[in-house]
User: Fold these one by one.
Assistant:
Number 1:
Amino acid sequence: MLVNNRVPKAVLFDVDGTLAETERDGHLVAFNRVFQALGIPWVWTDEDYQWLLKTTGGLERMRVYAQHCGQLQFLEGDGAQRLQEAHKLKNKLYAELVSQGAVKPRPGVAAFIQDLLQQGVIWTVVTTTSRANFDALYKASLKPAGVPPPQFAVCGEDVEHKKPDPEAYLQALHRLQLRPVDCLAVEDAPNGLKAARAAGIACLVVRSVYFQSGPWDGAYEVRDSFLS
Ligand code: XBP
């Protein structure tokens, strides 16, 4: 993949929706199971979740939903603690789903990354999901599909501000000791695109199920698949 006629030195991949349809096949399923298990009176539909994905971070997403429904008891005291427990349990269930094979890499992603490595390009992960989620996905889904390990993974715990803030990308650039112009980001969602662009990095968008329509302003290229 050329960016401005040059092979980039590093390609920085988002995880959720980009490497795999983790939101549809993992996180959303786990959220709804946890709500039922903990007696939280919420059932998120695909349509709800599409809107909720505008908020990055699982805990932040639940808080936005509580606010949206006017269920302010979940925003402080015992209620807030319940949401924190729900979030921990969601990630545990997510890891279980992933280890059971529920989340497959997106078609062509392994070959795309292998091809980069053959050209001497570094691949890294820049996500604001929890580290345990990426580790579970790598072990159970990406590695068995032939995806070599990334040089490193910047994850949600490493940053103060999640995407669309550029912090995760800036941290990756610092660790790589590379300039933005030497890198390419790969994202599936407007928030990720914004984060990459705010860090000055060109961004390839590979649209995922919940992000069929942009806005994709500033994208280097927008595709539907790693195969095209
Ligand atoms: C991905 C997310 C995450 C996951 C859930 O962010 O939005 O919130 O849906 O992960 P990014 P957690 O696009 O930066 O990878 O529950 O661990 O937050």
Number 2:
Amino acid sequence: MKNLVILISGRGSNMVAIAEACAAEGWDARIAAVISNRSDAGGLVYAQQHGIPTAVVNHRDFEDREAFDAALAQVIDGFAPELIVLAGFMRILTPGFVQRYAGRMLNIHPSLLPAFPGLHTHRRAIEAGCKVAGTTVHVVTPELDHGPIVAQAVVSVRPDDTEDTLAARVLVMEHQVYPRAVRWWIEGQLEATADGRIVHRSAAPQLLIGS
Ligand code: GRF
């Protein structure tokens, strides 16, 4: 049974999708803890109601990123996780922290990376006149919103889309693609090619198509 630790900063809908898939599909894994840098993160309530241990490490209590990351790592390691899942965790991580969990930390970003790293991805996609948008699950590397791509999901950008309507359709896909990617990692289905790409051992589609 593999231990997962999920880091959140807000509503935690991706965390919920992963927890529900884990339970419904009988993964050989358990959510060992949900950890947030904000005590008011909505997702903590879900975790508490479902018997998942929670912890808060408030970044405001620390002088700098290094001190925060060191404290966070200590809490994470207390749950002995095989995999760290970033699900709307809104902190930039230090290289030392990323290195500590190299190859076993995943993130989901609401754009088709390498396009639109950073914030306001949906607004930027609309403003750029993109006809597709989507989301990317990737292995975390020191560079923000970078790292080998595990899976992507696409949706069309409609002429009348607003940031909110586009975000809502992308989120539906996030809730499908992230649990799938996490499950693949747990089952050992993912392998890195010599040039550092991530492929599925049995060639399962690493692209989901929404509408
Ligand atoms: C998602 O859009 C995710 O891609 C981004 O932050 C958002 C988190 O949403 N990294 P939630 O907290 O999982 O509902």
